[in-house]
Design goal:
The structure is a homodimer. Chain A is of the alpha/beta class and about 325 residues long. Chain A has a single domain (about 5-165, about 235-255, about 265-305), classed as Ribokinase (UDP-N-acetylmuramoyl-L-alanine:D-glutamate ligase), CATH 3.40.1190.20. The first copy, chain A, is built from 11 helices and 13 strands. Chain A has helices at about 30-35, 55-60, 125-135, 145-150, 155-160, 170-180, 185-190, 240-255, 260-280, 285-290, 295-305; strands spanning about 5, 10-15, 20-25, 40-50, 65-70, 80-85, 90-95, 115-120, 140-145, 165-170, 195-200, 205-210, 225-230. In chain A, helix 3 (about 125-135) packs parallel to helix 5, helix 8 (about 240-255) runs antiparallel to helix 9 (about 260-280) and helix 9 (about 260-280) crosses helix 11 (about 295-305). The termini of chain A are far apart. At the A-B interface, helix 7, helix 9 and helix 11 of A face helix 7, helix 9 and helix 11 of B.
């Protein structure tokens, strides 16, 4: 079934210990859409500038991604400059040129209206809420946010949180949102703000999902969290987009299934980790463009082997 | 089969956000021995002072732990004072009174000589090496160390590392020992120093084991790491001894099995996490003294439920 994603399509200029790239295709919606495209149909709502060429667009369309919702505006595409020179754990933002993104007003093409899954990537919660209100009949809403919106746009964010089936954020964001250091207590507080389920990403340590009584509507109750591993990697070339790729693998798999059971949810967590692990192997979206379904399936098995007591190797 | 552990038996004065305790029984060998005692016979080599009373000793003997190797010396027992007031992630050491530990010269009782498993808890690598050389016929040697020995006693530590079947340390120690930030590369470097297998503890994120071609002598090769979860806990009363309790559960389970296969090793990693999760629920060794085998088995199942794709809940 189709996922509609609204978020940023951007150019990233990135420096890591493995090198540097200038103006490579990036943005949360881009990473999310590419990762999810291996599982289901994806439709993108975003805005780009005149520097976004057919060569950029084909990166998406070649993966079967519907780009009719990508609006062309006068000016330049959103441009982010960041460095991981000090540590691969966290990017240091050197520049954020919003450009055409500054006046982004998401418009949903008619052809997108029958999308059943909605992903609200990390953008202004006012825009997230606006898109959500225009898609009242979606089956599921999943969203992301970041420290900037948590700190300075709390009231707007609160409205979005009440609409979410799943909120996907990282440790620091969960603790900040809850104002609580202990992750279990923080998760309880965040779930009380609205999301039925919370997925907390731990970077190289994997991810944990926390469930509420509303996680599986009318179905089984999950009284404990679920932890999915990340793959220990000897080389992280570029961490940019890892979280969005996790979200794409996670949500893409969920949307490919007929119903969301605990077993389906757990597999989705693993597929999130799988796509995140591919994303960081090359700069920008290079690896996500070229990965094959067979590689994805093999890595999924590897994720089981590194985390399950019983496995093929004995 | 019997484990011989050499390490500290101490008194800890601890402050955490949940309260404070003065001179409660602690030390690496104590936590290790209590955790391991639920799986196998444990024998302790340590030194205590005149303030170590029969009431302290019975904490160990009640669990069937052999204390004949605990030497009584004139003076006071090793006393550590620490605070987790700022963060439960890391203790701030406020005082280290070595007392009788300063002149500790481990002596191995004859009755201990048939021990098949040796655990070298975190003490001066010179003492670790001395004990190891007196036990040349043990089946397996597992050891711990810390930043102080890594930084200032590298040559002595190098000798111990060459003797180890398994080295159990945390992320920071692994990175420091290898001089390498990436954990996979750090693990490769550490394994090249001697240990056949490396277990890296990640605190609330679980633990990862890294294998070498020598991990399972003549047996199956493990070409990838293994990740065991930690239990997300809403209340960590006192983190002191969590790592030693992990080691006790891990090594105690290994020693209880007739051979170390990859499947046995993986279960041992889970039991390590289980015992670590109990240890932090109360101050000092309180929880490790009182836990039951049934509670351990139930928590083991919980560890599977939070980490495995298929589980009883559906």
């Amino acid at each position: 079934m189709s996922i509609l994603v609204v978020g940023s399509v951007a150019f990233d200029s990135i420096e890591t210990p493995h090198g540097a790239v200038d103006h490579c295709l990036g943005g949360a919606a881009t990473h999310f859409a590419l990762a999810a495209s291996y599982f289901t149909q994806v439709r993108v709502i975003a805005v780009v500038g005149e520097d976004f060429t057919p060569e950029h667009e084909v990166v998406l369309t070649r993966r079967g991604i519907d780009t009719r919702g990508i609006e062309r505006a006068k000016g330049l595409t959103f441009h982010w400059t960041g460095s991981y020179a000090g540590s691969l754990d966290e990017a240091k933002t050197l520049g954020t040129d919003l450009n055409v993104f500054e006046t982004f007003a998401p418009k949903i093409p008619d052809a997108y209206m029958d999308s059943e899954y909605l992903f609200l990537a990390n953008i202004d919660p006012v825009l997230q809420a606006r898109v959500r209100s225009q898609m009242p009949h979606v089956r599921m809403v999943c969203g992301d946010t970041m420290n900037y919106w948590i700190a300075d746009h709390a009231a707007n964010l609160a409205k979005v949180l009440r609409e979410l089936d799943v909120l996907l954020i990282n440790d620091g964001e969960a603790r900040m949102l809850a104002g609580e250091r202990n992750l279990v207590l923080a998760a309880e507080k965040v779930l009380a703000m609205g999301p039925k389920t919370l997925v907390v990403k731990h970077g190289e340590y994997g991810a944990t999902s926390f469930f509420s009584a509303r996680s599986f509507d009318g179905g089984v109750k999950m009284s404990h969290p679920f932890r999915a591993p990340a793959l220990p990697l000897s080389e992280v070339v570029d961490p940019t987009g890892a979280g969005d790729s996790f979200a794409g693998g996670f949500y893409g798999y969920l949307a490919s299934q007929s119903e969301m059971t605990p077993a389906v949810f757990r597999k989705a967590m693993f597929y999130g980790g799988v796509m995140g692990s591919f994303a960081v192997e090359r700069f920008g979206t290079e690896r996500l463009q070229a990965v094959t379904r067979q590689e994805i399936d093999e890595r999924f098995k590897l994720f089981m082997e590194i985390s399950h007591l019983e496995y093929a190797g004995g």
